[in-house]
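Protein modeling request. Please complete all fields; requests missing the sequence field cannot be processed.
Requester role: graduate student
Desired output: 3D structure, token encoding
Chains: 1
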Amino acid sequence: MRKQKSEVNQNGSVLLVVLLLVTILTSLAVEFAYEVYISTSALSNYQNAQKASLLSKSGHALGLTYIKSLQGLTSTSIKEKEIPVEGKIKEGFLSIAVIDENSKLNVNKIATDDNALTSLKKLLEYLKINPSLALYIADYIDTDKEPRIFAAEDNAKNSNLWSIEELNSVKGIDKETFETIKPYITVYGSNININTAELPVLISLHTEMTESLAKKIIYQRESAPFKDKAKIVNISGLEIIGANILNRIDVKSSDFRIISKAVVNDINRIIESVIDTSMNIKYWSEG
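Delivered output (287 residues):
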């Protein structure tokens, strides 16, 4: 009896050891398979990221080619150019946009240029935003400590903006306000291109510029873009106003934003830059 009990105990122990080994081996196999899966996924994501990065750089190069093509022109009249990509891109897509920054009002100028400050006030008013917000922006940018309006110098940057996104730090600018003014402002360039500026920007050019007069500019350029900015005085009603804004307008743009977005198997890569027609890089972001 004792011998049989001993044999049973031994067999039971062996069974437990075998089960334990099977469990350990199964666990190791599962862990190994998981590690292989993770490694494979990581490798795949890395490869997709590299492809997307190269693709976005190629798109940016196409944007540069378009900007170079504008160098010899006497005027430019396209505010935003979507550059088509020939053929299909395997496992993804590429979009390229070139945006004219000179179609917008440069807010950095308002700190030292009263005409620019007046223009920003009028732009805000037209967009149904309190025009006094322009004073907060001016105090945020200018280098002195003297407030134009109460508490406007609190937490001021006191230097030019690097991007319009910095306006989100200005007192009185909430998300809705920023999104409303964003299409019409920039921190680049000097004069405004009357061939590409939208209606609110054209209206902001002079205190006596009405919506009706601004629409006349748009109507004129749609039939034939301005080749000479002095021709604006030939538009009925703009004989005096046109002469007064000649030093603030142009018919050719020099600063452009390139946005190149590539997607490969749900992995995104975006290159955004601002470059002038002399190929000087003023802004670069890659991510």
